[in-house]
Design brief:
Elements: E1 3-7, E2 11-16, H1 35-43, E3 48-49, E4 58-64, H2 67-79, E5 83-92, E6 98-102, E7 105-106, E8 119-120, E9 123-134, E10 144-153, H3 160-167, H4 181-191, E11 198-206, E12 213-217, H5 228-231
Parallel strand pairs: 4-11
Antiparallel strand pairs: 1-2, 2-4, 3-4, 5-10, 5-11, 6-9, 7-8, 9-10, 11-12
Length: 232
């Protein structure tokens, strides 16, 4: 059963568990847990995904209950217009206190809409909430620096937060694609938990039909408590 955060005649907003795919894909044929199919069966009606969260990401995920709403919200999520999406992440290193990442991103190979490569503007705002260290040697250093960030995706590009943090040289811990494999494995063994440490914590948006302002939050799971000692 999924935790449904909000539902009406037009929208269903859920708390996506880490490790679940949004929908079936040939890229991950061995997976058996899909949010779309589970939600459809849970509420007994067809649903349309409005945006995506990566398999390893947990948190607020929006579905439409008809195709028109899905089309309207899909465009809003891609442009970022009228939305405020706040994420929590743990990254390698100590970023500066705050900043704006304004770095264009190419569409990924499975997300091309034409035969040519497309480059999209992409912006992410970040605030460093706290810094800490793990007792894990890294290179010539006796410990591994880590930081807890609050991220705001101002645009909705594929893997935007993960790619932007890699661009800053502060990859998200547990990111198998954009991070450092040996470091991820060492941290997972140290913590006793292996996951992508990225959580979609809050979404503020205008309802596409009623125009009511919605603020939907999903608290991070209890596994995040493991960072308290290191990050405060």
């Amino acid at each position: 059963m999924l935790d449904i955060l909000y539902i009406d005649d037009y929208l269903a907003i859920v708390h996506k568990p880490a490790g679940w795919l949004v929908h079936r894909t040939p890229l991950d044929k061995g997976e058996t847990r899909f949010v779309l199919q589970t939600l459809r069966d849970q509420i007994g009606q067809r649903v349309w995904p409005v945006h995506r969260l990566d398999k390893g990401t947990s948190g607020v995920l929006v579905f439409a209950l008809n195709a028109d709403v899905a089309r309207t919200l899909g465009q809003a999520f891609e442009s970022g217009e009228g939305l405020e999406k706040t994420y929590r992440a743990v990254v390698r290193g100590w970023p500066v206190d705050e900043g704006l990442i304004d770095h264009p991103l190419r569409r990924m190979p499975d997300d091309m809409r034409s035969q040519r490569e497309e480059v999209q503007n992409a912006q992410t705002r970040f605030v460093t909430v706290s810094r800490g260290e793990l007792p894990l040697p890294q290179g010539d250093f006796p410990s591994t620096r880590i930081a807890h960030l609050q991220l705001q995706a101002l645009t909705g590009r594929r893997h935007q937060l993960r790619r932007h943090m890699k661009h800053m040289a502060h990859p998200i811990i547990g990111d198998a694609t954009h991070g450092k494999g040996p470091l991820n494995r060492a941290i997972a063994e140290h913590l006793g938990i292996q996951r992508l440490w990225l959580h979609a914590m809050c979404l503020e948006m205008r309802h596409p039909v009623s125009l009511e302002q919605l603020a939907i939050a999903a608290l991070p799971g209890p596994e995040w408590d493991i960072w308290h000692a290191a990050l405060g």
